[in-house]
Each structure stands twice: as C-alpha cells, then as structure tokens.
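Input (structure):
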C-alpha cells in the first residue's frame, strides 16, 4: 500500500552559476539547475545543532537537507555552492539581510544578487580543466576549479600538517597542489607538489589565483558601502542564517 502524505512543500528551481557546464555529462548537476525546498522547523533544528556548529558542518548539513534534486554533493563547485547557500537563506528567512560594515548598518535584498557572467568560450562542457601559460616563468599549467570534496580534502590535509607542526600554515600552497593538474604536461602528483613547494614563483602564483577568480562561476556577492568607494565582498556573519542572533 502506498500512503501519500496530505502535506506538500513548495520548492524553487535555482540556476547554478556554472550552468552545469563543468560537471560530467551524466551528473544531475550538468542540467545547470537544482530544486530546493523551503526551510522548515526541521532545518531550524539543524541550524541550532551545537555539534554541527562546533564541527563547522552546519551550513553543509542545512544545504543538503534543502536540496530536493538527487545530486552528488561532493561534486558541487564552490561557486555553485555559494549560490545555493544564498538561495537557502532566502528560502528560510526571506531576502532582507541586515549587517554591519565598518560600524555602519547596511541592508541588502539578497534576491537581487546575480550570478557572475560566464565566459562560455573558456568552458568545454563536462570538463573541469583549464590551461594557462604562467606569465613570469612561461610554464604551461592546467588547473581545475575546486569542488566541495576538494575543499574537504584540503581541510583534512591542513589539519594533518598542523598536528605535525602547530606553527605551520601552508594553506596557499596546499590549495594550489589540489588546483594544479599538470605542469608542462607532467601530471604526476609528486612532481606537482615539488613544483608548488620549490619552483612556483610568487608572481605566477598570484597571476593564477587572479585568473581563477576571474573565470570561476559564482554568485556576485559584492556590494557598495554607504560611504561610497569600491565594491567590497558582502560580509556573511552570524545574522546570515541566524537573523535573531544577538
């Protein structure tokens, strides 16, 4: 006997900043959209779960709970995950977000935020790999855009390094070892790690990071402060998912 619930939850379709271009063609994420449900009291339980908060997993647990589409969460590109996080906030507490920046009260409507413009010419559908000739050394590298799983792997590696040397903080080089996929055609992980540790020039490292920032699909989280000046990144603080905090 199939028993149908008499209750239904409204859902919304969220457009991913990547338009699904970088996911394997057989992935649900390759559709470029996902379906999410509105936040319920169950998700509020997740947001107040002290264990999740202490472990730093609370936002991931929340997003996973809200996604209706059958996706592989590990495959999610970080920029797409950012857009889903903003959508989760809107579906939970609406678009109005109040925050303090440099001592001033600001308010923004999150539903007006757009995804960054995508240069489709750079993307080969189904393949998360890009080429770049480093300007200073002339070395040819290929690199990928990081996924949720990559971020987890990096966090674990950094944790392990901290146990060996508590003063160690090689976050930048550790990230680059996961980002770079080949150097002058060489794909051996050991060689890539050696290159990052000993031969990657600071100017080339900076150029690579700036290029990634430029092409990476993401939601545009910049805003203009009241006092004028350049656009800055939207500060995502406690009140983002905990509007009543404080």
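Output (sequence):
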């Amino acid at each position: 006997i199939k028993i149908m619930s008499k209750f239904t939850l409204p859902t919304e379709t969220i457009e991913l900043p990547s338009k699904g271009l970088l996911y394997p063609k057989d992935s649900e994420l390759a559709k470029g959209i996902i379906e999410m449900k509105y936040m319920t009291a169950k998700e509020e339980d997740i947001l107040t779960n002290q264990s999740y908060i202490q472990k730093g997993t609370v936002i991931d647990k929340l997003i996973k709970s809200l996604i209706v589409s059958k996706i592989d969460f590990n495959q999610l590109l970080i920029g797409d995950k950012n857009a889903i996080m903003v959508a989760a906030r809107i579906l939970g507490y609406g678009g109005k977000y109040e925050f303090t920046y440099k001592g001033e009260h600001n308010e923004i409507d999150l539903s007006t935020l757009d995804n960054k413009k995508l240069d489709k010419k750079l993307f080969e559908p189904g393949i998360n790999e890009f080429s770049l000739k480093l300007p200073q050394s002339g070395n040819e590298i290929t690199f990928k855009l990081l996924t949720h799983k990559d971020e987890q792997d990096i966090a674990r590696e950094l944790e392990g390094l901290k146990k060996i040397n508590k003063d160690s903080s090689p976050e930048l080089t550790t990230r680059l070892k996961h980002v770079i996929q080949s150097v002058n055609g060489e794909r051996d992980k050991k060689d890539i790690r050696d290159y990052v540790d000993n031969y990657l020039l600071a100017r080339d490292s900076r150029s690579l990071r700036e290029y990634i920032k430029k092409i990476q699909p993401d939601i545009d989280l910049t805003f203009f402060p009241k006092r004028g000046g350049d656009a800055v990144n939207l500060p995502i603080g406690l009140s983002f998912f905990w509007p009543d905090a404080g």
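Notes: The first helix runs from residue 41 to 47. Strands lie at 11-15, 33-37, 96-101, 104-109, 130-133, 140-143, 180-183, 222-223, 232-233.
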